[in-house]
Amino acid sequence: MTGRWADTMSATPDELLRTPFGLPSFRPGQREVINALIHDGAALAVFPTGGGKSLCYQLPALMFPGVTLVVSPLIALMKDQIDFLTSRGVAAARLDSSLSAAEVRDVESRVRSGALKLLYVAPERFANERFLETLTKARISLFAVDEAHSISEWGHNFRPDYLKLASAARAVGAERVLALTATATPAVVKSICAGFNIKPGCAIVTGFYRPNLELRTTAVSAAERDHLLVETMRARPAGSSIIYVTLQKTAERVAALLTRAGRPARAYHAGLESEERSSVQEAWMASDALTVVATIAFGMGIDKAAVRTVIHYNLPKSLESYSQEIGRAGRDGKPSVVEVLAARDDVEILEGFACGDTPTREALGSLVKELFASGPSFALELGALGERHDLRALVLKTALTHLELRGVLRQGTPFYATYQVKPLVPLPRILALFEGERAAFVTSLFEHSKQGRIWYTMDTDALATRLRQDRSRLVKALEWLAEQGKVELQVKDVRHRYELLQPDANTQELVELLERQFKHHEAREIARLQDVLTLVTLGACQTNALVAHFGEQRAQPCGHCSHCITGRALTLPERAALAPLASALDEETIRSLVAQHPRALGQPRQLARFLCGLSSPAVARARLGRHALCGVVADRRFHDVLAWCEERAG
Q: Contact at 8 Å (CB) between 42 and 199?
């Protein structure tokens, strides 16, 4: 075992707190979580953003023999924590998609040998059989799951791969389990505890009340919002700020607006290249005056204490999202302002997002039919599969995960169908490394590949069949050449292996089950948006109502929310009157377009999505995204548009 802190099993929590972590005392809840792990072997930590969740697994990792496995969706968080730990002499590493094959093998070797104390992985890593095989050869002292609300059907940020983590913890023989989250209602706490077999008394909830945050809510019309935002930011003292918006294009526009007004700002959203996102994040971390205008993707896993202002330019989609996002303000304990610019115009867009992921029954039916016709085992290219059935990536993955949890499917190890190989030395020198049958084998690899000017493209399945070799031998040969510095490898076209475990299952019942689950999720997301509207227009202490949503009861008004300060409930301006839906839609033109594109628009829900400006694989494939009718009624309630489409479908 390597690292300064490889042998600390006899140290007490207080000793480890001081060295290596250099902290004078525990924060609220930390000691209780660590004691629960020591004495009960399982705990749930529900701490506010910045409440010190990471210490709850970093410190125990040094107390217990074996490796602590940390499951997190945030690569930025992994990197930051690993840098901190290694600077303190703690052996820590990560496994993620950015590592080369040689780096992955090195990390796995350190896991097996016991050289690592903490290993960070994404939840998707548990679909990799090689990784699971590595874990069976290691002692997993602690299995820690960050963002644990994502495993719960009641959670606000559902991630399909999280659903399988509780069974993964049992499969790898984890000796202890720790779940961590910043946002969990009582129902989510109960669900997490049930999934991970955590005793109710080992669920440590420190509270959500933040006395240093002034919760402002301001009613505004969409037309007035830009002006109000500029005036609000001008009135605020210079300091690090975050403005949350719903759409990527809004982030770009608002960042430009603020910069022109003399408040430097940059946009941050998933549509930017990763290098640009990193540049924005690094600039914001280094600046005391920069504002980031971001979608919800920004801020998770970022540890910056002195954020003085967080503004929601658009309504947040849920109280859970709102709580998590305002939690990035004032983490140093100093007074900070969080404000919602509440416009009723946002409701239709947010409801549309909630409805846009609900698939049609026909799409689910054709998906299930294809899966059951694919044989006992098969490999899927998820992008093409989603296109065939008009299912967006997250929707498709969710459906497959639900089928896994019902025991219908079992996922195997993903693999790459295509390897691109660039020789770094002349090919004859590569072939000279081998003799006899091995030389003939490697020669055949290159001879039967598609040769470009620099790169060779290898379809590994086709090559394996043609050469009558196991695919694994091809891959190992290429990886060995890369390790030796003889070639550069690039992989693409990932395939996902599945086994059909219940070939005689009632497919109609499965389709109905999936449809009910998706519609239930849609209704729940719309209800969450209504919770936000209720909070911003509440005629009582809004801070107390927010923390009560998470199960915390306060007897006295906070004194620092908009209602406590003004004594008045907010009334949102009514939207401008809209023309009847029928007059906004040219029925004859729509009918003609549907006839031309039945696969993309043939079902009422497909057509409603298109008219509301919600994309889908079929719409993208038909190149309808820029059609004049796409988004023509984006300002209307999705269900009103859906009803119009259903009525005309007869």
A: yes
